[in-house]
Structure formats: structure tokens, C-alpha cells
Design brief:
TIM Barrel, alpha/beta, eight-stranded parallel β-barrel, Methylenetetrahydrofolate reductase, globular
């Protein structure tokens, strides 16, 4: 039996937030503001994104150390692409020594510009990394799921089969963000149809601008929504009005998921302190209504 649970059965709704390490001074200011806000939000755990290469990896490790020192529970991202098996083992041991709450095991994605080659990779799929984490630690393991299908999937049937294979050996599934509730509901139903009962937590995003929505949708391999709650979206118009619509849409998705019995809500914060604070303030009202 594992000593730590990511979704304790005795606890109410578990709230988690994804953050990423800062790359420059402006991003550092945003991250600092977010971490200050987190002291009020008090998420149950924070996930920290990970870059397999060089300084990005060190920024991740430094941020994890800082968060743990501040008293936050951390679930660390770990991607298998770009690493040898021995490097992954070293990182798993280092994470455990740092005191992380768990690991989000990912395949990882090559850079969009294709410059970096992943010749060092010895593990090529997330389920292989899940097995390695099990072998090398007693940490709980989460995996990423894609309600609208994995970007590299060739057909729905194989995508469902692979997602079930990945999830059945994990403790928790965290989804990529989605914009239509039917996508999330369909994923849960498909996993139950495969006999997998591991908890699945919806990941939600509140884009701050239309440009950010388009960019993140492209990265995730999703078709961006053309409207929120019937209101057409475009790159023109009032940014604050767009943010309000995006927040309403994310809260509505969270509300439906809570009504359907999910045990947690995960927010892709985009390192945005105001949005993160407002989302969870709204969610608190929703959860207790």
C-alpha cells in the first residue's frame, strides 16, 4: 500500500494547479505573484512542468525545491523522451529525496522547431515510465489523458486502448484541457468500458487572451472553440470581456464535473495569479452550493 494518496478518500474536492518555471525576469515576476496568491488559494498540490533539456530541467528542480520549502505539496512532471534510463532513475531518486508528493509521468514532446533530437531516449512511452517509477520509488504516479484524443493518435479505438493501458497502472489521470464537456464525459465512459476505475481529474484552462487560446490549442493539437456560451470569439474586442467569458466557461465545466462526481479539479494556471485566484474563489462557491 502506498503511503501517500493524491486523492485521499477522506478528503473533499482536491484542487491542484499547474505552474511552470520562469525563463526571464518578466516571467519571474508573474511566477512570484502566482506563488503569493497560492498561499491564499492553498491548493492540495501543485504540478511543475518539466523540460528535458539543460537549464530548463534545472529551473524545474529549483522551483520544486522552493515550493516544498514554502510548504506546498508538489507533483513533479517527468518526461521520458530525451533521457537515458539511468538519467530517469537519477531524477526519480532526486525527486523522492526532495520530498515530492508524486510524479506525473509523461512521454514528452519534441520541440516544435524540431531542432533537438531525442537520440538518448531509451523509454519511448509514458506507460514505460510509470513502470520505472514503480520500480525505483514508492511515489504515487499520475498520467496525462487527452479527452479529445492524443495529437499523435491515428484512430479512436487505439487511442482509448492506449489510454486505458496507461491509466490502469497509475494512481490518477489528469486530463489535458478541453472546451466541450462531452469530451471529458466520453473519456470517463470509455475508461469504464475498458474496466479501468482509476480516478480521472479534469484539467481546465482559462486563457487570458484570444491569442493565448489559439497558441495553447495549437500546442495541444486541439481545434480552438469559436465561442464561449454562445458568444463568438475573435482576436478583436475587449480583453477583459474575453477573460470574463473564458473564466465563466471554465467554471461551468468544473461545475458539471463536480456534479458528475469527480474527486478533483486541476487548473492550468498559465502562471496567472489573478485568474487562478478568481477561478478557485468561484469554484469554492460552486463546490459548496
Amino acid at each position: 500500500m502506498r503511503k501517500v494518496e493524491l486523492l485521499p478518500a477522506h478528503q473533499g474536492l482536491v484542487r491542484s494547479v499547474e505552474v511552470w518555471p520562469a525563463r526571464n525576469e518578466a516571467q519571474s515576476d508573474r511566477l512570484s505573484a502566482l506563488l503569493t496568491a497560492m498561499k491564499t488559494v492553498q491548493p492540495d498540490f501543485i504540478t511543475v512542468t518539466y523540460g528535458a533539456m539543460g537549464s530548463s530541467r534545472e529551473r524545474t528542480l529549483t522551483l520544486i525545491e522552493d515550493l516544498i520549502e514554502e510548504g506546498f505539496a508538489v507533483v513533479a512532471h517527468l518526461a521520458c523522451l530525451g533521457h537515458s534510463r539511468s538519467e530517469l532513475v537519477d531524477l526519480i531518486h532526486r525527486y523522492q529525496t526532495l520530498g515530492v508528493r508524486g510524479i506525473l509521468a509523461l512521454r514528452g514532446d519534441p520541440p516544435l522547431d524540431g531542432v533537438v533530437e531525442f537520440a538518448a531516449s531509451e523509454l519511448h512511452y509514458a506507460n514505460e515510465l510509470v513502470e520505472l517509477v514503480r520500480q525505483e520509488s514508492d511515489l504515487p504516479v499520475a498520467v496525462a489523458l487527452h479527452p479529445d484524443g492524443h495529437p499523435d493518435s491515428t484512430d479512436t479505438a487505439s487511442d482509448i486502448q492506449y489510454a486505458a493501458q496507461k491509466l490502469e497502472h497509475a494512481d490518477l489521470g489528469l486530463t489535458q484541457f478541453f472546451f466541450e464537456y462531452a469530451s471529458f464525459a466520453g473519456l470517463r465512459e470509455a475508461m469504464l468500458g475498458q474496466g479501468v476505475k482509476v480516478p480521472i481529474v479534469p484539467g481546465l484552462m482559462v486563457p487570458a487572451t484570444h491569442k493565448q487560446l489559439m497558441k495553447m490549442s495549437q500546442i495541444a493539437g486541439l481545434d480552438p472553440p469559436t465561442s464561449f456560451d454562445g458568444v463568438a470569439l475573435s482576436g478583436d474586442g475587449d480583453t477583459s470581456a474575453f477573460q470574463s467569458l473564458a473564466l465563466d466557461a471554465a467554471v461551468a465545466l468544473a461545475k458539471r464535473a463536480i456534479a458528475d462526481g469527480v474527486r478533483g479539479i486541476h487548473l492550468f494556471s498559465m502562471n496567472n495569479a489573478r485568474v487562478t485566484t478568481e477561478f478557485f474563489a468561484r469554484l469554492q462557491v460552486t463546490a459548496s452550493a
